[in-house]
Amino acid sequence: QLQLVESGGDSVQAGGSLRLSCAASGSTTSPSCMAWFRQNAGKEREGIAAVVSYGATYYADFMKGRFTASRDNAKSTLYLQMNSLQPDDTAMYYCAVSRVFSLRPQDFDDWGQGTQVTVSS
User: Fold this and answer.
1) Structure letter (DSSP) for residue 15
2) Is 114 exposed, middle or buried (0-12, 13-18, 19+ CB in 10 A)?
3) What are the pLDDT digits (tens) for 64-91?
4) Between 92 and 1, the higher pLDDT residue
């Protein structure tokens, strides 16, 4: 069974940077689409960026160039470089896997447990 483990979450001040990682294991093939989502209590889960196995990447509009997603297929690992972090970026960040190239949460079958990012002003 596929397992996803996120890491890299931390508490930082506004303007700081973090790099999140998501390691996938338990699958014989590299996942078709890996994506990052985030969610705050009481809010809907929102997609951040999706990366397919051949490298194409799709970003949500609100990213405004601050975040960069990438993946290492050999390691089955997804990354999210986050720069110029703001308090509004505070959330639990999740990675997920899908067979389709999408940023809709309902299209994703497997989810990690999440890693917390907290940005203070």
Assistant:
1) T
2) middle
3) 689 999 999 899 999 999 999 999 999 9
4) 92
DSSP assignment string, 23-92: EEES-SS--SEEEEEEE-TTS--EEEEEEETTS-EEE-GGGTTSEEEEEETTTTEEEEEE-S--GGG-EE
Place of tokens 């999740």: 94
Three-state secondary structure call for residue 99: coil
Amino acid of residue 85: L
Q: Phi, psi at residue 98, to the nearest 5°? A: -140, 160
SS3 state at 10: coil
Other beta carbons less than 10 A from residue 59's beta carbon: 19
